[in-house]
Structure formats: C-alpha cells, structure tokens
Amino acid sequence: MKTPNKPSIDLVEKEQALQPKAVPDAAQADAGNGDARNADADRTRKPLPNVQSGADAEGAAPIAPPYLQNRELSWLAFNERVLDQGADETVPLLERLNFISIFWSNLQEFFMVRVGSLTDLALVKKHIVDSKSGLTPAEQLAAIYERCHELYPIQERTFEEVRRLLREHGVSHLRPKDLNDEQRSFLTRHVHQNVMPFLSPQIINARHPFPHLENGALYVVVRLDEDRDAAKKKAAKAKGADKSERAEKADKAKNLGAEGVTLGLVPMPRQCERVIELPGEGMQFILLEHAIEMVAAEIFSMYAVKHTNVVCVTRNADLDATEGSDEADEDYREHMKRILKKRSRLAPVRLECERPLSSTLEKLLLKRLGLKAHQVYATPVPLDMSYTWGLGARLPEKLRAALTNPPFSPQWPACLDRNRRIIDQVAEREVLLSYPYESMDAFVQLLREAANDPTVISIKITLYRLASQSHLAEALIAAAENGKEVTALFELRARFDESNNIEWSQRFEQAGCKVIYGFRDFKVHSKICCITRQTDSGLQHITQLGTGNYNEKTAKLYTDLSFITADETIGRDATEFFRNMGLENTSDNYGILWVAPLQIKPMILANIDAQIERARAGRPCGLFFKTNSVTDKDVIEKIVEASQAGVPVTMFVRGISCIVPGIEGFTDNVRVVSIVGRLLEHSRIYGFGPREDMKAYLSSADLMTRNMDKRIEIAWPILDADLREQILGYLDVCMSDTAKLRELLSDRSYTPLGAFARRGNEGETELFDSQDFLIKRAQQRRLEAAEREASRDVARRRAEQLMATNEMTEREANGKDVRLSDARASAHEAEVIAAAANTAAELAVQAAARAAEQAAQAAKTAEGRTEGGEHEKAALEADVIEVSIAESSAPRTAETQLSRVTTASEPDARKPSLLVRILSKFVR
Prior knowledge:
The protein is α/β, with parallel strands linked by helices and about 900 residues long. It folds into five domains: about 1-20 and about 70-170, Polyphosphate kinase N-terminal domain (Methane Monooxygenase Hydroxylase, Chain G, domain 1); about 175-230 and about 245-370, Polyphosphate kinase middle domain (polyphosphate kinase like, 2-Layer Sandwich); about 420-580, Endonuclease Chain A (Endonuclease, Chain A), CATH 3.30.870; about 595-760, 2-Layer Sandwich (Endonuclease, Chain A); about 775-924, no CATH class. It is about 45% helix and about 15% strand. The strands form six sheets. Strands 10, 11, 12, 13, 15, 16, 17 and 22 form an eight-stranded mixed beta sheet that branches. It has an eight-stranded mixed beta sheet with strand order 18-26-24-23-19-20-21-27, with helices on both faces. A hairpin with a 2-residue loop joins strand 15 and strand 16 (about 540-545). Helix 16 (about 440-450) packs parallel to helix 17, helix 20 (about 600-615) runs parallel beside helix 21 and helix 23 (about 720-735) packs antiparallel against helix 24 (about 770-865). The longest helix is centred in the C-terminal third of the chain and has 94 residues, at about 770-865. It is globular, with a radius of gyration of 46 Å.
C-alpha cells in the first residue's frame, strides 16, 4: 500500500499545544472533605479564556481553551466508534459488515459536506480561525486528511477479518484471483450476456478529452498501449504526417497531462446487479467492477491492457440554497431544482482507488481533478459498500439467522388500545411513544382517523424528511381530499432529501393541501403536528411533538420520542406556531413551547444558571443532556461554569462532543458518554435539576449553533408525572449499559467497548445492552397488552353473551307472564260470564214469576167479560205483558251489571266492550 503524503506538522498536536495547562488551585486540593457543590467551588473556578476568532492586532495566535476540541476531529472519532462495531465479536457477522458499510457512507457524506464546506472557506476566508481549536480552514483540512489516512487501514483490517470469518460460514466474497476454472467460465458467459449490452466504455486521448466523473460513481480505469501491429499499419497509412503527429503530441500533453498516455474508462452500469453469484458450495460471489476488470482486454481489443484499477471521486456537495433565491418571478421549487443541478458539477475533494495508482496515472488524474496527493486514498475495501445490505436476503434462512440480529419489528404501543379510536384516547390523556421500540403506525393511524373524522377541521404539520413510500403522507393527502384543511410546511433544503421533498410537495398541492416553505434564512427542523376538532365544548387541539422526523423508514432504526397531547396551552402555541410560519415570523410569543432561534438557547442558559445558583446555595442540583452533538460555544461555556460551581453534569452525546470532560479546573464535574449500537440514538432530552426533582424537556434541537441560531426548532416540557418518570426510566436503562456505552476521557479518547462490563461469579463477562433490553421490554409489554386486550375481549364477549341470555330469559319470562295474564283474564272473564248468566237466569225467573202473576190476575179480570172476543183479547194482553218484561226489563238489568263488572276489571275503560256484547247476546 502506498504511503500517503502527510502534512509537515502534526495538527492534532498543534491543537493540543494551543491549549493552556490548568494549574491546580490549593483550595481545590483542600476541598476533598467538603461538599463538592458548596461555595468553595467558586474559589477553584478558572476564568474562561477570551478566545478570539483570529489573530489579534499583534498577530498572536488565538488561545484554544483546554476543554474544547475541533468538531471535525470529534466527528471522525465518532465514525471510528461506528467502525469499532465492525470489529465487535459480540455482533453477528453480517451486522459487522453492515457497520463497515455505515462507516463508509458516513465518511462519504462527511467529505461531501464538511470537507466541501471547509474547502470553500479555505479559498475565500483563509485566515478565519475555529474558536474551539485555533485552526484555520486549511489546517483543519490537513488534519482531516491525515486522520483519514489513519482510519483507512483500520477499515481495511476490519473488513478483511469479517470477510475471512464469513468465508468460514459459507459466504465467500471472491476476487478475480480466487476464481476456479468453472467460475471463470460462468462469469465470462454472464458478463457477455447480462453486462456487455449495458457498458459504455470510452477512450481518453488527444482526440477524446477527459470526461466528467460523477460524484460517488465507480469507474474501471484501464491503462492502454496501442497494439504494435496496429500502430505499424497506421504508420504506413500516415506517411508524411510528422506535422500532425507533433500536433497530436501537443494535444495529449494539453488534455492528459502525460504525453503518450491512453486510458480506457468504463462506468459501472446502473442496470446491472452489483453482486454476481457464482457456482460453488455455499454462497460465493464477486462484485461487478471486478468482473468488468476481468474482460477489459475484450472491451478494448484494439489496445494492449497494461493494468486496471477501480476509482471513485467524491465531490463537494455543500450548496448555498439561498443563492439566487431572491428572484421574484421564480418558483421556489424550481429554484431548488436548479441549485441541485449544480451539486453534481462541484469540485472534487477526494479520490479513492482500489490499488495504488501508477505515477503516470496519478499525475494525470490529480491534474484533471484538481487534487493533491494527500487527497488520494488507496484501499482494497470496495469503494461502494452499499451492496452489503442486500446480502442477507440471498442467504438460506437458517444461515441468515445465524449471521444477523434476531428480527425485530416496532411494537404497537402498549399504552394504546387497538380496539378503540386513538383520537379518543389521546383526547383523554397524554401519550409518549418511544421509537423504534414502539411503532409509528399508531401516529399514522391517528392521522387516518383525523382524515375521516367529521369533527376534524384542519391538520397542520411540518415535514423535513419523508420516506419515499409514506403512509403518513398518504393519510394527509386523503384528509385534504376529504375536505379537511391540510397545511404542510415542507423544508426543501433537507440535505440529500431535497428531490424527494420537492416531489412530495407537488403531490400535496395537487391533492388540495396548502403547501408553505418556511423561511429564507432558517431551516424548519421542528417536528410538530396540530389536529383541530370542533367538539360540543368548542375547539379542541390535539398536538404531536417529536424529536425525530415523520419518516416511517428511519422510525424503525432511530431512537426518538413522540409526544401527543390535548393540552390547550400547547394547542394554542401550536396554532400560533403555524400562523407565524406562514408569515415568516420568528416570534417568541408562546405560552409553554420554546421555539428557536429566539428561545431555546436563552432558556437553556437560564435553566443552567438556576442550577448554578442551587449549587452555590448548597442545594441538590444537576444537569443532563441527551443529544446527537454538542458544538455551541455559549452552551459549552455555561456548562463549564456550572461544573466549576459544583453542578454534576451528565451528557449523553452520540456524535460530536466539542466539550472535553475531566479537565482540571474547568470540566471536573462533567461526564460525557456515547452509545453506538444496533439502533441510532437520536432523541434529544434536556434535564434540569437532580433526578428526583428534574424538569424534563424534549426537543428537536441538538446543542449545536446551527440548531439554536439558524433553524426553527421546538423544545417542550413533560409535565405529566408518569411520562416524566417514563423518560427518566429510559435514561436509567441507557446509562446502565455495559456493552455499548463508552466514556469520553480527558485525553479525547473513548473507553473501549465493554469497559464497564461486570464479572460474573465464575469470572465470565456480563454485558448489558440497553437497546437489546428495550427491544425485549417493548415486545414483552406488547405481549402483556395483547393479553390484557384479549382478556378484555373475552370479558366483553361474555358480558354480551350474558346480556343476550338475560334478554332472552326476560323475553321468555315476559312471554310466560303474558300467557299467565291472558289465562287469568280468560278465567276471570269466564267467572264474569257465569255470574252474569246466573244473574240473568235469576232475573228471568223473577220476570217470569211476575208475568205469571200478572197473567193470572188478567185472567181473573177477564172472567167477567163476555165469552168469545173479550176473552181472547184479555189473553193477548197477558202475552204482550209477559214478552215485554222478558225483552226489556231482564236484559237491561244484566247489561248494566256486566258493564260495571267489566269496567272494574279492565285496566282501560275505553277498550271495546266485546265481553259485554257477547254476554248481552248470551243473556238474550
């Protein structure tokens, strides 16, 4: 491997040399028997250095405080911790390979953004000095390139070890020299049939100038010599062409930088599979670029191939999105599209190759790319490691299980009942979801319910990074199509997601959403959603605030917290926030939210001051920050002041930490830890006070100047005691980690993996992986919640069955009661009929007796009359009297009595007197 050209001085040593040594104070030495947080701490506090942003009037170099370090070198230390996971024997082999791939992709973006930005600064602001390290942009670049030359060999050793171990498990990554005859024959056929049709080789010589090499693309570069026989034929046809030959040589020197050099260049075809599986035992494969190298002689058959290599150029991708954005007649989306086109043409900042370049080829490439020798990195590790993520899918299930982590899917939150509407549950109580242990599906379901809820009036949301296939976005579009007022604030400047955001913003507008783009000078990085409902008691706001993006893909990999509340104060603040966003107003007129750029930093500083006052008063105090990075100098200096006052400060920083702990007299009471593991720690938590009395805030903002001064960010308090305890319990688990947790030391190194591991009774190492524990706990809680839900379902079904049985029994009982009542009524009616009949009979007998008496008396009266006509007339009158009594007197008496009986026995006297009519007929 070729030794890179190194800078003339060790810039890391320079950075350390610029830092003054702290002189121990005698009072500090005598304070060991007193309270570390008492007033004696004031006497040990050193004055903060007045760090300048450049040389002073006399040209003296700025003084770098000893408790600060350069952010770029700190980031490289973070990426080395990522690479350490590739060497961790407790991590499954394919996962180790994936960590090497993450190291590669992180470094790729670092060069594109941070190195690109410093390159621009080195050209236009050469003398500006980093206040945290005292280095100019050029010096920072030199330190970065040198540190990377140290990291590449570590990456190579780690990759080769994992490659060797995978081969032992039947997964063989082969190179051309490793192939047998059968595999060579197979590969030749495969390339001819499936690769050659898509190749676009080209020649670089005097007639074909050097082409543009795309950022991050792989190229097979071939050093060619013209075939001697062909050259003789050409010479025979070109007699007397001395003048043209001299011109050609001049063109070669102009175009190539090395006279007489002819190159072949083959871009990797995007249409072809990068991994080519080969015949043989287990899974054996070769990468596409190496297959193309093997057939280079066929591709350039007119030339003699001297040697081949694979190269990759990294270009500056740090764009100024505000450049030219003042054009009044240009749509902002179109402006961003135009800016993005520039990215692919920006200057190179790094050249990678699989093997050391020949001096001729290196000279040629460096000249054409505008690079220096120290910007070239030669490594046998594949220059594009993205292929690793698809290897697992190619393996048999049993082997894949042995080489990867146990599968994990985010769980449905145990605090939410799947059988009830979420919008009703969050209206009743606040909810805190922990991604990826708990699923983002619950929030997506909330949006779906809001889209179809007739009480919902509007949905407003900020969108920074959306997944390319987003159910969340589809739910918002559905809400707009259902007539809801949907406002989406898109941040089109989310780096490397610009194109995706542009496409989604167009879809949102087409669906009828109101799309706004925020501020010209501030990125909108906050994560907030507000659902407004019209309820019987008035308007209700359901607000969601998150520490991470609304991205279903990253929500399965990043640890974040999502807070959902119906608190009216937060709801009013959310409404005011969106109103201000529409007006490009950086207001600080909020009741409970802290909104950057005007509030977050001042409120953090004020709360740190409060803890300093508690320490000086001898009261319990403390500070806790969980963040991705710490770079803001104002916050760091305030933390140093707190440490000097005796406030214990714990900082959980995954990535960049510009504060160095353990520096005597400055950061004695500061502890900085980091976890790099299976999941990416991403949540931001601020804690003020001792644990038992800590005020907990969640935020979208890291402790970085860009977040607090140049972005729209939100921080909010967790006031519910149960949710606060949930956060503190989560932090307790993280800080108890002995497998992945590492501590930053005063010499700027980190403790090794497993440094906090415990020893078992038999001397074995006991490791506690906090992320693994939280995954299993989420699964257990989901299982318990499912059991509770199942029990509730069983109880509910039993209750429904019991109710149904009771209703049936009641109906049957009611039916029996009806039938019994009918029988009783019939019996009563029969009794009435019998009584009426008896009464009618008695009346009839009485009437007959009276008629007989009247008839006898009439007969006696008629005796004295004349025989014949008079006697017959008298008899007829007697008959008339008898009939008259029978037809009038007796029936009317019976009907009157029956009517009275029926009226007394019927509940409703207005019912038809059918019984009366029947009895009347019977009596008649």
